[in-house]
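Running co-folding for guanosine-5'-triphosphate.
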Amino acid sequence: MGWNDIIDQSRIAAGGLADFATNLTEPSIRLGVTGLSRAGKTVFITALVHALLKQARLPVFEAQNEGRILRSYLEPQPNDDLPRFAYEQHLASLTGPGRQWPQSTRQISQLRLTIEFAPESFWTRHFGNGKLHVDIVDYPGEWLLDLPLMQQTYQHWSHAMLASSRTEPRLGLAQHWHQHLASLSPDSKADEANALQAAQLFTAYLAASRQQQISLSSLPPGRFLMPGDLEGSPLLSFAPLDVTPDTNFKSGTLGALMERRYQSYVSRVVKPFYFGHFARLNRQIVLVDLMSALNAGVHAVNDLRSALVDVMGSFRLGANTLVSNVFGKRIDRVLFAATKADLLHHAQHDKLESILRLLVNEAARKAEFQGARIDALALSAIRATQEATVKQRQGEFACIAGIPEQGEAIAADIFDGLAEAAIFPGDLPVHPQAALQGLAQDTLRFVKFRPPLMTSETFPHIRLDRAIEFLLGDSFK
Ligand SMILES: Nc1nc2c(ncn2[C@@H]2O[C@H](COP(=O)(O)OP(=O)(O)OP(=O)(O)O)[C@@H](O)[C@H]2O)c(=O)[nH]1
Ligand SMILES: [Mg+2]
């Protein structure tokens, strides 16, 4: 362990101490909600908060089922340095006359929900009602994939990025960047224009890989695709060079410049996120758009697999720090959730869940993950569809029905955003292992549905209650 680590660990311990002291007076849970872009974070948090505020029907959430949840309300958040999660705005867009999904978010944000409850046991109840603060932190999963960079040199990282860009399907997308790279010599004089152009071409390569058809998941550095407030910052103007892991750069060279920028990125971007936010979480939900990955084919599934191993590795990192030794384990429960389950008929939900479980177990094994309790489930935070059986000459089809968004299409049918449609989304394979080999083309049919018309005060959902019970249920004893 170097000095750097010791200083970092005392930094984290100081933050942990502050959390520990406040927890003595008012218990709080910091719940991290993450997932790659479009995974469903904003919709999940909005639905979670709404369901708790309105005491929605949540049969599996025991404390509420037992009538022990007295009231829930939003409170000003404790951390002034974090933007507030725009709950009211997201809710308004979902429930307004236009019924639209919330806008994409690009930033970390936080919301404090306070829940008052009657403790379970007679004796504890004697001391009055309990109060729990739940601090929900929404952050891009892309940032999580950066955490391993803290333990990698620039040379190692360059080597690994280049190796992965030389295999298909990435190779085809990396052409422009590779061409420019071939013109660069790490030993040449440091040149700002070259560094900038390399960074731009490298970012374009990452962005192309992220496109839906290819849907590649593990693409650090996270801020390149999800810059947040670092848009245009010099901290993002570096890129890999074609070097071996043991290369040493002479000062004044392009290699040295790139190495320095990489180190600044790690110390000024990755570490502050890790120490300031990530290492202080107690519970974590990782949202995964598994269906899009399955639909995009075997490369996307394999990429998601390796991203999950990396994510698991980050959580292991969290469990082994000094803080966890001093204050008990940090993140002690992690839930992986396949989102948008309402795009499949319920007869497929168990299969979707089995596929996710298989991926998660495999990732845990590969990352030698031990410690926190892990679970996996398929959910829909806001259910936009209902089920319908459609009879045709070929037989009966288990369909989902809802209002597809304007412009969505299946074959030659283009939807107008007003009419309801029943769609047969397809069947997942019976054996989860088979899905990991990639589904045949067009096995699944997805369209984007509009958010549901509210017929009661609360949103319909699928298994949101199971997620709440797993993430928070034990706090209401
Ligand atoms: N049918 C259905 N669609 C969903 C559900 N949750 C999310 N979606 C869809 O997924 C899209 C992305 O959801 P968001 O919650 O905005 O995802 P995010 O992870 O916050 O995305 P970024 O902010 O872009 O990182 C939404 O616009 C919806 O189209 C769900 O439960 N059911
Ligand atoms: Mg969002």
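Result summary
Confidence is low (pLDDT under 50) at residues 322-329.
The pocket of guanosine-5'-triphosphate (ligand 1) is lined by residues 35, 37-43, 101-102, 104-105, 140, 339-340, 342-343, 380-382, 384, 448-449 (CB under 6 Å).
Job closed.
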